[in-house]
Amino acid sequence: MSMEICECFPYINETAENVQSISEEKIRKLLENLREAECLILVAEGRSKAALHIGIGQLKKEVKLVEDIDFPGRNLLDAVPALKKQYKKIALVINSSSGKTTTPKETAKDLADYINKKDRNKQFSIDVVTSKPYSSIGRIGKKYGSMLKLSGPKSKAKTMDWVLKKGIMNDVYELGSMVLFQKIKEALNEGRDHLWVIEEINKEMEVMGRMIDQYVDSAVYQSAVEKMSSRGHATIGGLGPGKNVAEMTIIRLQHVKRAMGDQVYLSGELAPRPRHGDSLLLVSWSGENKPLFAWQKEYEASGADTFSIVGNHSTLSEATDSIIIESPVTLFYLRAAFLLSPLPLLLVAKLKKNGFGLPPEIMDWYHSSTE
User: Fold this and answer.
1) In terms of domains, do 109 and 242 share one?
2) Is residue 226 domain-shared with residue 162, that is, in the same domain?
3) Residue 59 located in a structural domain
4) Are residues 192 and 69 in the same domain?
């Protein structure tokens, strides 16, 4: 069943169709395994990682990352003895479009070997979301926990015209996995079943389709496109889940800006000092985070343009050109990530209008990444 929920960007409709096509039984199994687990260990790379973290964020259950400073080991196998003592059931949750990225693949393989040889009490499961069910990661999930297939884009966008329909890189999969994990998280928090997850995914996609249609033509959004399509670096930032949204946007946006000879940075200590002509975009539900104020003031004083996406009328919304998404904090960062996904596409359209074309070879290279 086709879902026409967004007039401006066909890739949002394809995302909706893909999440709607997920097997009910696969959602039920994934939800069941994560409900039984006392602790979830999240593993992913690149955009899949940001999507997983945004979706699972604010889960009322123990969540660990191997890279966290308090993780009880140098890697997952090193942490197994401590995890077994602390929790009766542990789920390794992997989000990987290709099913073959290095860290998820090696982590899944190591844990599968351990389960085979030593996990007599079946304390561990490996639960995978991927677009490639026959990949090494997909096969491991199917054997040792659950494997949910979520389709990616039907074809790759190799020209500027196709980009506007298909999105940049793997938008369709990453956005779809994010809303899937968001609703799985809500179901776990609220004691809902898999049918509720399916219904809520469809409702949320409709909301986000209308939201994108509403805001992309707004003066603020178009001003951000105008500023970022001119020469100058762009910096995007936030704290906590806002940082995940920023990272997800940066990965997409930098492929367009680099073709122009510019860069996109994550705000903070690694970003260069702002210059006149640069732009800053901040993401914050409250709009009252002091570090964000400091970044905004620094950029404004340097002659840069400052924008924000916030959840409230706030100090930050008053100080910047701002879009206010009136949304509970539990949904804000998901919706902010969706709303920012067309930004690089509109830059491509703006560049084309100004006579600047991205060569097909570069477009093909941009889409050669599978995560």
Assistant:
1) no
2) no
3) yes
4) yes
SS3 sequence of 118-180: HCCCCCEEEEEEECCCCCHHHHHHHHHEEEEECCCCCCCCCCHHHHHHHCCCCHHHHHHHHHH
Contact of 277 with 306, CB cutoff 8 Å: no
Whether the CB-CB separation of 56 and 93 falls below 8 Å is answered with: yes
Which has the closest alpha carbon to 72: 84, 60, 59? 84
Distance CA 61, CA 90 (A): 11
232: alpha, beta or left? (left if phi > 0; alpha if psi -120 to 50):
left
Cα separation values, 209 from 6, 200, 237, 348, Å: 4, 14, 24, 20
The C-alpha atoms of residue 245 and residue 42 are separated, in whole angstroms, by 17
User: Whose structure tokens read 């006149």?
Assistant: 276
Tell me how far CA of residue 149 lies from CA of 173, 179, 230, in angstroms: 10, 14, 40
Encode pLDDT of 231-255 as tens digits: 899 999 999 999 999 999 998 898 8
**CA-based nearest residue to 292, from 320, 311, 259:** 320
Q: How far apart are the first and last CA of the chain?
A: 27
Of the residues 213, 240, 274, the one at which a domain ends: 213
* pLDDT (mean) for 168-178: 85
Place of tokens 């924000």: 308
How many structural domains does the chain have? 2
Q: Tell me 284's DSSP state.
A: E
| Residue 185: band (very low, low, confident or very high) from pLDDT cuts 50, 70, 90 | very high
CATH code at 301?
Answer: 3.40.50.10490
Domain assignment present for residue 371? The answer is no
Residue span of the structural domain in which 28 resides: 10-213
Judge if pTM exceeds 0.90.
Answer: yes
